Amino acid sequence: MDAELNRRNTLDAVDAFNAGDLDRYLASYAPYAVIHGLPEHLPPTVAGHREFLTAMRAALPDFKAEVHTLIVENDTSAARLTYTGTHRGVLQGVPPTGRRLRWDAMNFRRFNDEGLTVERWILNDNIALLHQLGRV
């Protein structure tokens, strides 16, 4: 496993995500990738991730990720990051508030030999997000 390739691919994926380039972002995944941590009503697939991110981008048009820590070893990466975005569309049933939302997350990725993500675990601080939306 090429840890440096996996690091570059992770950071390139974040750049695509922050640019709002969903196709380029999702190209960082193998077609058969499994994505853990999506909402229960979505399949844990690249298609499910696309659906989730499309809805998030509609609610938060300036949706961004800031990586604070990225550790890559062999075929696995661990990242500590912060997501931000301005609430301009319906999010989790809450009408737009215009508020700037911010929550922390941790993500883990496993890569294949080509540096594509084959498995990902997404752990968000959903309580912080729900609190900002006035749901808790």
Automatic annotation (TrEMBL):
Signal peptide segment: none
GO-annotated biological processes: polyketide metabolic process
InterPro entries, alphabetized: Cyclase_SnoaL-like, NTF2-like_dom_sf
Protein name: Ester cyclase
Native species: Intrasporangium oryzae NRRL B-24470
